Amino acid sequence: MKVLCLGGAGRICRESILDLVQYSSFEKITVADFNETEGRAIVESLNDPRVDFVQINVRDHEDTVNKMKGYDIVMDGTTITLNGLSTACIADAGCHGINLNGFGAEDAYHDLFQKHNKTCVPGFGMTPGVTQMMAMHAAGQMDTVESVRVSHGAFRPIAFSRSITETTTYEYDPLLPGRVVYENGEFVQVPPFARPREIVLPEPYGNTVQYIIPHAETKTLAVALAHKNVQLIEVRGTWPAKNMQLVRALYDWGFMRNDAISVNGKEIGILDCISEYLFHSTEGQETELYGYSLHVEIIGVKDGRRVQHVLYHTHPASDGTVDGWEKLRAYTRNVGIPMAIATELIAKGHVKKTGVLIPEDAFEPAEIFAELEKRGIFMHEEITQLDESVQVAK
User: Fold this and answer.
1) I need a labelling partner for 139 at 20 to 30 A (CA). Which of 10, 94, 270, 348 fits?
2) Residue/partner pairs of 278-286 with CB below 8 Å, 24 or more apart
3) Going by C-beta distance under 8 Å and a sequence separation of 6 or more, which residues neighbour residue 168?
4) If we measure between CA atoms, which residue out of 218, 205, 164, 195 comes closest to residue 10?
C-alpha cells in the first residue's frame, strides 16, 4: 500500500505521518508539500526508507493529479480553503481520500469517487471525527436519542500556524452561514458566542464556558441519528481563556468582519493584519496549557428509562513526563493521530462503501477507540439514569 500525505510539512499532518511510520503497514509514505525545505527536513528526521518527498502545488490541478496517481490513498492535511481544490485532485487521480476539516467542499465529488470505486471521508481528526465515534457509541446503546451535545477544548496557541489562525477566524466569522444547531428537525443559524454552556472537562482543564461553533458533527449526526428520532444537536468549543478573550474582543469591535483598511497606500483586511502580527508574535505562539479534551453528552431512552451518557477522553500529559507529548505536541498529536488511524483503515479495505462518506458511515467506534488506546489515548464513559421511566409513544 502507498499513501501520499498532502500538506505533510504542516504541524499537524507531520504527526499523522509519524503515526503512519510507527504503526501502519504502508510500504511507501510520501510527504507532499509546496514547502520543499520543510518537507525534506521531515523525511530526514523520520529516517525511514519508506518515506520520501514530492513537491506539490494543489493549485496546479493537472500536475497534482499526475503526482497522486498510483497511490492507494491521499491523506490530506491542507487547510479549509484548499480542501475543495485538493479533493478535486484526489477524485480525478482515482485515489481514496481523507482530510481533517470536512466543511462540505468535498461533497461535489461524491459521484466521481463512486465512479472510481473509491472512498473519501472528510473531517476525521479529534473533532470532527472521534467526536462522532463517541456519539455513535453512546447512541447505539439507546432506543431513541433526545439530545446530543458535543464539546471540546483545544488548548493551543492562537496562531502557531497559518492554518490554525485561519480556523480561528473562520469559526467566528459573523457572516458564516454554517454556524447552526439542529433543533426539532431543522438547522437553526446562530451568531458567534451563541448559547454559552459550562462544560466540565477532566483535569488539568477543569470548568470551561463553551459556545456554538460551525462543525461538521451537527449535520453528520443529524443524518446518522435520524432513525433514533434525535431532537437536538449542539456542537461547542473553546480555546485557552486568553485566546477566547481576544476573539471576543475582536468580534465585539467588528474586527472579525475583516474590513479593508489602507496602510501606507496599501489595502489590507484588518483581521489579516492582526493575524499576521499574531503569527509572528510570542503571544501568538505560546500558551500556558497544552492539550485536547473531548466531551460528548447524549441523553436518550433505553428500555423505557431516560438515561444520560457522558464520554470524554484523556491523553498523555504535556508537561514533559511523556516523551513526544511535550507542550504543543500534546495538541498536534491528538489531532493528527486519528487521521492516520482512519487512513490505514480505508486503505486496508475496512470501509466498504464508496463515494464521499460521513465518518459515522465509514468507521466502527470500537475499532477507532482500540487503535487510540495503543497510542495512550483513552475513552471514558459515565452512564446516569435520569428518570425512573418515560412514556414511550406507540
Assistant:
1) 348
2) 278/158, 278/159, 278/165, 279/159, 279/161, 279/162, 279/165, 281/159, 283/158, 284/157, 284/158, 284/159, 284/160, 284/165, 285/157, 285/159, 285/160, 286/157
3) 158, 159, 239, 243, 247
4) 164
57-69 b/e with 16+ CB inside 10 Å = b? ebeeeeebbebbe
Pairwise CA distance, residues 367 & 272, whole Å = 41
299: part of which helix (H) or strand (E)?
A: strand 291-302
Closest CA to 360 of 201, 131, 147: 131
In 3D space, the residue among 53, 54, 52, 48 whose CA is nearest the CA of residue 23 turns out to be: 48
The helix or strand, by DSSP H or E, that contains position 329, with its residue range, turns out to be helix 329-347
The per-residue pLDDT for range 71-110, each reduced to its tens digit, is 999 999 998 889 999 999 999 999 999 999 988 899 999 9
- Single pTM value for the model: 0.93
Cell of 383: 452512564
* Rounded Cα–Cα distance for residues 77 and 80 (Å): 9
